Amino acid sequence: MAVKIVECPRDAMQGWPHFIATPTKIEYLKLLLNVGFDTLDCGSFVSSKAVPQLTDSLQVVEGIAPFKQSTKLLTIVANTQGAKTAVSIEAVDVIGFPFSISETFQIRNTKQTIAESTDTLKHLLDISSKNNKQVQVYLSMCFGNPYQDAWSTDLVLDWCQRLQAIGVQMINLSDTIGVAKPVDIALVFEQAKTIKGIEFGAHFHTTYINAQEHIEAAYKSGCRKFDAAIKGFGGCPFAADKLTGNLPTETLIAYLNELHESHTIDQDAFAIAMAKSQDVFVEG
Questions:
Q1: Residue 204, CB half-sphere, CA atoms under 13 Å: how many?
Q2: What domains are there in the chain, each with its CATH number?
């Protein structure tokens, strides 16, 4: 089975300091659709005040929908209103929901407590099921907590089991702020393997320096699904003032190629998209 690579231009763009024009976003995402990614994280239906960069997500998704091939389209929501918008779009396959084992970060990220977010997630699962959409939960603070909330690998496992109990089938174990250590990554993914019926993925906010050791720790512990962003652009603007960055797609592909591991990436199409990123993420 090929390793699943999820490209995350939405995550790369969300905290970018200068607004990226809608036509530029559409042109870039159209190139990414040619690459052969399993899924493209392409938009977010959340408050425009919270994430002004993504206020044009509806136009962007509609703009790329005619060019969709085998790659699934994923959009992020934080409440039932956003979910209703997302499920109404035929081209959207997966609805992403940010959920944290950290009470502090859940409130920072979605303005909801963990209990409130659990109720929201239940509604989201129901809405998505009725509209033939999948739900992807991003379980954040899985590898450490900078806010002094309780954290342990056992707590992560407990939350994975709780989410499964309410119907979640896809969980991305996430390091939102870049505190993960390889030993913790390995342990969390080893424990996750004991839960049957959930597809686990890795979502790391990291630097170029630490990227490969993070990939290796997860891969050797059985992870076969990774979120990434070309050149590591982006990060979560709600976690810290300075964006940590995402797992660089090119580092992930190089690692898999070195292992002769199967994936679905068209290297030529990827090179074209990577070159285009220079025009999209412009400083200043």
A1: 33
A2: 4-280 (3.20.20.70)
236 has a pLDDT exceeding 70: no
Mean pLDDT, residues 226-252: 75
List C-alpha distances in Å: 278 to 206, 253, 261.
Answer: 20, 19, 28
The dihedral built from the CA positions of residue 95, 96, 100 and 106, taken in this order, carries a sign that is: negative
Please state the separation of Cα 240 from the chain's center in Å.
17
pLDDT in tens, 49-74: 888 999 999 999 999 999 999 999 99
b (16+ CB within 10 A) / e for 106-119: bbbbbebebeebee
Q: How far apart are CA 62 and CA 81, in angstroms?
A: 19
- Kindly report the CA angle at 121 between 61 and 56, in degrees rounded to 5? 20
Percent of the chain past pLDDT 90, that is, above it, reads 82
- Beta strand 72-77 pairing with 92-100: parallel
Helix (H, G, I), strand (E, B) or coil at 280: helix
User: By the 8 A CB rule, do 51 and 274 touch?
Assistant: no
Find the Cα–Cα–Cα–Cα dihedral 27, 15, 211, 103, rounded to 10°.
-130
Supply the pTM of this predicted model: 0.94
Please tell me the predicted confidence (pLDDT) of residue 239.
40
Q: Locate 254 and state its tokens.
A: 């190089």
- pLDDT-derived band of residue 241, with 50, 70 and 90 as boundaries? very low
Paired residues of 60 in beta bridges: none
The residues facing 96 across adjacent strands are 76, 136
3-state secondary structure of 94: strand
Q: In whole angstroms, what is the distance from residue 91 CA to residue 83 CA?
A: 14
